[in-house]
Structures are given as structure tokens and as C-alpha cells.
Specification:
Elements lengths: L10 E4 L10 H13 L6 E4 L9 H8 L4 E8 L5 E8 L7 E5 L1 H4 L18 H12 L4 E5 L10 H6 L3 E3 L10 H4 L4 E3 L11 E5 L11 H5 L7 H18 L10 H11 L3 E4 H8 L2 H5 L4 E9 L8 H11 L4 E8 L8 E2 H5 L2 H6 L1 H15 L7
Parallel strand pairs: 1-2, 1-11, 5-6, 6-9, 9-10, 11-12, 12-13
Antiparallel strand pairs: 3-4, 4-5, 7-8
């Protein structure tokens, strides 16, 4: 009588980005893992939800780094309404690292459906207030995710919250937003908090300069509700702001988040690929050591996904270690591979996939597990 042999145990890394407008990266990773466990309950599943500096960046760090502590904060939202938010303190004392996300302090998702938005008035003041709170709590290093912005204020709101004053030609403080920058004549940095001693790393997947046809106003202004006339006014305001600050507007990434990257550069920050920095901080490479598969994905997987976005970075890390990759996406704008799954196809149509993403991500995880052949299978 032959003995029953249990299937060989595999290490599987689950590292999706968010499926924007549908499900966040942490929830997506859990759903994929639940589906996999329903078929292969003995496998070792390492969840490493990813982000690239936009919405979900803070959650990705919190999910992957035990001991991370969310700190609540009340800030001025992008339209001036006070909102409850939070920032994250990572464990460890040297340095004391805080993660602050623009998306959850000054981002587009914070604008209510019935709320009027003026593209010339929205600002990043709340993002700066959260940064100030993190510094007051003892942070000596900052990781700043700047995706998901709804403003085009050149980072003036952040710098104002940190103690700087932008004045017009009569010495009066200018209003918030790009409209205020159109009046800017001087920048008083006398009260500006110094950057933390262990540095500031700005996380973004945008390499745009501040000005010009590829800059903050021309490319991203329309996405934030700016009409052609408002785009021109934002461009003029940001041009004036660059002269007042005296910093180089052509730096790659200066145009990220409506020019917030530019303002942070003027404060002494360094710009970095958001997905690469997230991958390094959450230990993605170590998780992949000995793994037999990594599952990544996002809402729309297309040619841009391999150019600095989270799934492309995950694929690059996996390929460096010879780990097979499965991509699960809401839709594919490029040819999918034999180990990839489209949620629209799994669910039967796009609307079904969008209506219940957790269900279909669990189903995708289950299908991938059924197709998996362990290296050491008997």
C-alpha cells in the first residue's frame, strides 16, 4: 500500500499594485492570496503590496513592515475643507523614518463628488501640514509619496505649511493655489523648517519637468479639470514661481504632482522612482529569494507598466532572480503571457470585474494555484 505524499510546499510572493478606482493594493494582495490558499493551503505566501508613490504607498509600507505605526492627523484638504488623515512611522530609531502620502492629505480622492473644484485654487497645504506633524513627532527621515495630486501649486502649499511665506509685490501673502503663484514676487524662507537630518526621498513615477509641453500644466492640468485657458494661466503662474524660487524647472520630476516635486526639490529633497524605493524598503528582493512564483498586477497593464510603474519593477526584480511572473490585470493593453490572467475574462466582462474585484481576484489566485507545478513536486 503506497503512502500519500503531500504536495511540495512553495514560496509565492504576491506583489500587486492597486487596481485604481476598484481596489487598493493591500486588499488585492489578500484576495489573490486567499484564492491561492483555497487550493494550496500549505504554501508559504509572502504579501508585498506595491505602490509607486501614489495612492496606496503608505498602505504598502504598513502591510510589509511589521511594527509600522499609523499616526492620525487633521489637515487642510486640497479645497480648503478640514479632513482627517494619517501618516506612518516606520519601526527603528536610526533613522526615524516617516512616510507621508500626498494622496491621502491633498489628493484627488479627497474631493467629494458634489464638491466644486477650481484648478487654480486647489493646493498642497495639507500635505505640508502632515509633513510638519511627522517632523514634530521626531522623524529624522522622510519618504514622501506624491502621486494622485489634484493641485498645480508648484509645492507652494507644502512650503507654506512648513513655515515659508510667498508674498506679492506689496508684501502681502498670496492666496493658495496656482492663482496665488501668479502674484508671487518674493519667497521668504526665514521661517522654513530645515530638512530632516537623514534626508527626504520623494517617491514618484513621473519624470516630467515643471514647465513646457511635457510639464505640469500642459500634461497634467487637464486631468485635474483645467480648461485650455486655465492650463495657460497655470503655466504662466508656475513660470513666475520658478523665477521667484530661483531653482531649475527643467529637473526631471519637478513637474510631478502639479509641480510639488519642484517645491520639495527647493527644500532639499531628492527625487526617486517610487516603485523602486517602495520595493527596496519593503524588502521585495529578499522575499523573492527561493520563491517559485511572483504574482503582480494592476488595473490596466499596458506599455507604460514596464516604464517605472510597480508591476514593471516587480517583474525586473523577479527576472533578476529567475522567478516566474504572473500578471493579473483588470485589462491588458499589451499581449498577455501564458501565465497571466485578465480579470475581465475571468469575470466574463469588465463591468462584472469592477463590481466585485475581491471575488474575481480570489478566483484568479485559485486558477493560478491550480496551474502551479512546484519545483520539488513528487
Amino acid at each position: 500500500m503506497s503512502a500519500l505524499v503531500s504536495p511540495a510546499r512553495s514560496r509565492i510572493v504576491v506583489a500587486p499594485d492597486s487596481f485604481k478606482g476598484s481596489i487598493d493594493a493591500t486588499s488585492a494582495a489578500r484576495a489573490l492570496a486567499d484564492g491561492w490558499r483555497s487550493v494550496r493551503p500549505d504554501d508559504e505566501l509572502l504579501l508585498r503590496p506595491m505602490a509607486d508613490g501614489g495612492e496606496g504607498t503608505l498602505d504598502a509600507f504598513a502591510a510589509a513592515i511589521p511594527g509600522s505605526r499609523r499616526v492620525p492627523v487633521t489637515v487642510t484638504g486640497p479645497t480648503g475643507r478640514r479632513i482627517g488623515s494619517h501618516w506612518l512611522m516606520l519601526p527603528g530609531d536610526h533613522p526615524r523614518t516617516a512616510v507621508v502620502e500626498l494622496a491621502c492629505t491633498s489628493g484627488m480622492e479627497l474631493v467629494e463628488a458634489d464638491e466644486a473644484v477650481d484648478p487654480l485654487a486647489t493646493h498642497t497645504l495639507g500635505f505640508g501640514e502632515a509633513i510638519r506633524a511627522a517632523l514634530a513627532a521626531g522623524a529624522t527621515r522622510l519618504l514622501l509619496g506624491i502621486g494622485g495630486s489634484v493641485s498645480s501649486d508648484g509645492g507652494a502649499g507644502v512650503l507654506t505649511a512648513l513655515g515659508a511665506i510667498v508674498r506679492d509685490a506689496d508684501g502681502r501673502q498670496v492666496p493658495s493655489g496656482a492663482a496665488g503663484l501668479a502674484q508671487a514676487a518674493s519667497f521668504d524662507a526665514g521661517g522654513l523648517l530645515p530638512p530632516p537630518v537623514d534626508g527626504i526621498l520623494v517617491l514618484s513615477d513621473v519624470r516630467a519637468p515643471l514647465l513646457g509641453p511635457d510639464g505640469a500644466a500642459r500634461v497634467f492640468g487637464p486631468q485635474k479639470g483645467a480648461d485650455p485657458d486655465q492650463v495657460d494661466r497655470i503655466e504662466t503662474a508656475l513660470t513666475r514661481w520658478a523665477r521667484v524660487i530661483g531653482a531649475a524647472p527643467g529637473t526631471a520630476g519637478a513637474g510631478a504632482a502639479g509641480g510639488c516635486g519642484f517645491g520639495l526639490l527647493a527644500w532639499g529633497a531628492q527625487l526617486a522612482s517610487g516603485a523602486d524605493a517602495v520595493a527596496e524598503t519593503i524588502g521585495l528582493d529578499a522575499a523573492l529569494a527561493g520563491a517559485e512564483r511572483v504574482i503582480t498586477g494592476e488595473g490596466s497593464y499596458d506599455s507604460q507598466s514596464l516604464l517605472g510603474k510597480a508591476p514593471g519593477v516587480v517583474r525586473a526584480y523577479a527576472e533578476a532572480r529567475g522567478v516566474p511572473v504572473s500578471v493579473v490585470a483588470g485589462r491588458f493593453g499589451v499581449a498577455s503571457g501564458p501565465d497571466d490572467l485578465s480579470l475581465a475574462e475571468v469575470a466574463g466582462c469588465t463591468s462584472a470585474a469592477l463590481s466585485d474585484p475581491r471575488r474575481w481576484l480570489r478566483e484568479a489566485g485559485s486558477r493560478l494555484a491550480h496551474a502551479h507545478t512546484p519545483r520539488d513536486s513528487v
